[in-house]
Structure formats: structure tokens, C-alpha cells
Amino acid sequence: MINTIKFDERGLVPAIIQDYQSGQVLMMAYMNAESLEKTIQSGNTWFYSRSRQSLWMKGESSGHIQEVKEILYDCDEDTILIKVEQTGAACHTGHYSCFYRNADGQEVAPAVFDPDQVYASPVGPGILAELYNIIVERKEKMPEGSYTTYLFDKGLDKILKKVGEENAEVIIASKNRSKAEVIYETSDLLYHLMVLLVEQGVSLEDIFAELKSRR
Q1: pLDDT of residue 4
Q2: How far is it, in rounded angstroms, from Cα 153 to Cα 203?
Q3: Fewer CB atoms near the end CB (10 Å): N or C, the chain?
Q4: d(CA 67, CA 42)
Q5: Residue 69: closest CA among 87, 55, 54, 56
Q6: Global pTM?
Q7: How far apart are CA 163 and CA 135, in angstroms?
Q8: Where are the beta strands (DSSP E) in 23-150?
């Protein structure tokens, strides 16, 4: 791959860093051949600082490392896209993403990193990952009063019964031609399906990989 990339006259290439779950763009920095190689070998992002003229690893001092999930490059072979699992905030300001201001200069994200806000806005598929992680946490901690705890406590038969019931509700809502009902019942079905996935030890990545293989 390194031999394919077209570095500029300074030996650099822009690298766009993206959250692999939500698709949110986190930051942009530059890489040279050495930092790209270290990124591939270590599994964490390394960049080249144009001001310091040296290599640096993201999160080396802050602990906010980026675990590489996938590396892609564009059709012109002069830009890299790296999908990562971000620990903490990507931006040195404390924002989850460096792109936290709109065209009017207004901040559209919390100034201090809040893990509960990572997938809060904009609405997108990242909410599925957030929900899955919450279900995993419920299974591990089994907090009292939680409906998810109740399902895990009752076991597989109860979870399967709920999946069947919610599936039937989606069918009924669809037959009623009610968009609002379809949205509501589909959300219930997706939640119960993810409870089942967690109970079975199946990750969202497993499902995504299967869908990608079919594509």
C-alpha cells in the first residue's frame, strides 16, 4: 500500500480519521511514509508534525489513542481514510471531533468530551452501536430496575418470545399502513434483536461483515 500512495513534494499525504462505528469525521492530519508504516504495524495512528518536523502518535501523552480498524485510500491515491476506534476525545480542545463548529462559527458539540454525547448528534447509524454497548453493560452489571436486566434474568426463552412478539407487531403496523407505528415497532424489534445478539455473543461487527460479504 505504501508504494501505491502518491506523497506530495514534501513527502506527505493527508489522512482523514473517521469513527468506524458512527462514521463521524474526527480529524485530519498528515502522514509521511514512516508514520504510515508505523500506523500499519502498530495498529494505532501515527502522524507527521509539519511544525515540529517529527513523528507523533495520537494519544501518546493524553491517552486518547486511535485503534485502527481499516485503512482506505482514494481513487487518486493521494488521500488516506483511516477508520478508528477512538478513546476519549480526538481534538486537543476536548471535543470528540475537531469539526465541532458550523459555518457561522458556532459550536455544535460539547466543549468537554462526554462519552454519552458521542452518538447523540447527528442522528445516524451510530445509535445502534451505542445501544448495543449499553445492552452489553447491562448484561455485565445487571442493575436493578432495568428492563434489559429483566430480560437477561429471565433467559433465552423470554428474549426469543419478545423478539417474536415485536416481529408480529411490525407486521401488524405495516398492514395498517401506519408509518408512525412501523417506526415505533421496528425500534422495539431492533432493541430486542440486539438483546438476543448480546445473549448469543454475536457482535454488530459480525452482522456488518456478513452483510458486506453478501453485498
Answers
A1: 92
A2: 20
A3: C
A4: 9
A5: 87
A6: 0.56
A7: 15
A8: 25-31, 46-49, 54-57, 66-73, 80-86
